[in-house]
Structure formats: C-alpha cells, structure tokens
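Onboarding guide, step 5: your first structure request.
Type a short instruction followed by the sequence, for example:

Predict the 3D structure of this protein.
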Amino acid sequence: MSKPIVKCPTCEKQQEWDSSNQFRPFCSERCKQIDLGAWANEEYQIPESKSASDYSSAETEEHVDRDGAIPPTTH
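The system replies with structure tokens like these:
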C-alpha cells in the first residue's frame, strides 16, 4: 500500500505522509519554525462573528439584545 502524498502547509512541497518524518505535516524543521513564527505573530486568526454592539454607534440610542429592543424605562 502506498503512502498518501500531502503538501507541506508552509512551502507546499509534495511529500509522502510518513511516520519517519518527525516534522509532519511539515516537510522540514525550517517550515515548522516558519509556521510557529506566524502563530507567534498572530498571523492566523479565526474571524469573530459580529455582535449587536458592532452595529451600534454613539450617534444612535437604539439598544438591542437577544430578545429584541429594550423598552425605555419610565421614572
């Protein structure tokens, strides 16, 4: 049975997926270190979903929560 061919996530070099490669899924220590540096520099980020506060501004007094608009309070 042949081993699957995969691309290195950093340099995209084609390689066999082999347990003898201690740097899997990378092709080399260099590519592993480049990827680690990218993580350290926060180059990889999962985008956040927008919340209600992302759509509000100081110019409007509209308040929104999960259940809808917040009714005005009477004093």
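Each response can be followed by summary notes, for example: Residues 5-40 form a domain with the Erythroid Transcription Factor GATA-1; Chain A fold (CATH 3.30.50.10).
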